User: What shape does this take?
Amino acid sequence: MTTSHDSNKDQQVSRREALQRGLRGAAGVVAASSLTARVFAAEPKKTPEQKLAEEKTARDEAAKSKLKSKKKRGIKSVIQIFLWGGMSHNDTWDPKPRSGYDYTGEFDRVIPTKVDGIELAALFPELAKQADKYSLIRGMTHGIFGHETAAYLMQTGHKPGGRLAYPSVGAIFTFFKKDEYKGLLPPYIVMLRGAGRFSEEGFLGPAYKPFATGGDPNASRFEVQGIVNRGISDARQRARRELLDKINILGYGLADVPDVEAVEAARERAYGLILGKGREVFDLSDEPKALRDHYGRNTFGQECLAARRMVEAGVPYVTISFPGGWDTHANHFATMKRQCPMLDQGLAALIEDLDQRGLLDTTLVWCTGEFGRTPKVSWEPPWNGGRHHWGRVFTVLVAGGGFKGGRVVGASDDKGNDVKERPVYPADLLGTFYLLAGIDPSAQLPHPLGFDARVLDTEREGMKSAGLLEELI
Assistant: This one.
């Protein structure tokens, strides 16, 4: 009995001891929960700036990795079509047909393209057929609203207002391709004249200034200044050369003198431009009539055809400054109806022709203005239906040169006011060009006063960047 009684007694627990045990158990649970919370706690929330920095780094690394793995042929020549004044993005390559009359005006119709999901404004039926060969960057932005400053930023990748006048992308290409290009024509050509917004050569000096053709390629004779003389036939020019050769006694007697030899070499090069292979590049009469008609029998269309011939001759950089401004503060819709069909026909024909000749893979075509135009139309006097400067978001077209076609990068909001997703800054765009051309964006440039100058600035120097265009490589 005693044994049984003692056993039951041992199993009994006092109230105080039960409470103590409960407290110890609760403490253990709390400690375990705390440990679990520390182990599995979410990382501290990242700021928008941190997220953007990580996305930029990921895009830059992906772009470089893709280029190495794909072993692309790279950019050999560039054709830049500059729409000086700034073309409206809403009425062209980023249409917003459901944004209402105050935003669309009379351009509320869109058309499908060859690529499912990509639509263009109805003014671009020819480009719609070639949509698989180019891509649209609809998240382009820089936030500058002045012509000169925006043009400088878009064509150099550097912030305006600094102490250095940087060279344009065309001058940069000329500088880095100078040992590769041995053709007769100048390495950097602009048709028909520069836009006059800034000095394209920058601190690199006159050797890198573009050669402006002047003239009109749609005329019966493309009279290129300095190459095709106005009013002087080729036969008369050849007769002049023959006469000079006959009376050039000094040249014959000193032919072995280095300085005279250099002068003679320069003279032969000049004659090669005026009467030889260089001159022939600008003779569009060699082209079939049907092809010239396909490009468009207008100045811009024939500029595009001449640019293709220059690429065939190996010219590294050609700029077409559209012969008609896009600064449509007033008469906007009338100007667009006149100019967009020419842009559509000429640009589409150029992309198609380069592709058919096997030149598009190594030729970059890019088309842009310095900015876009206000999404909302100014109906009030004195504008009476105009659009003004807009640098917050606009669209750039890129084709060839290692870029994929049939893609859209970035997006604007439902009215076309701001970037909605994936901003692209000028340094991102030009940096991708340089990457595809084998040019190091951090390479040193020769400044005449020895200042530290590079192809592109770093973010520490205030360059905005959201990352290279890896989506298109």
Notes: The two ends are 92 Å apart (CA to CA). The chain has three domains: 2-40, 48-228+282-472, 230-279. The chain has 15 helices and 14 strands.
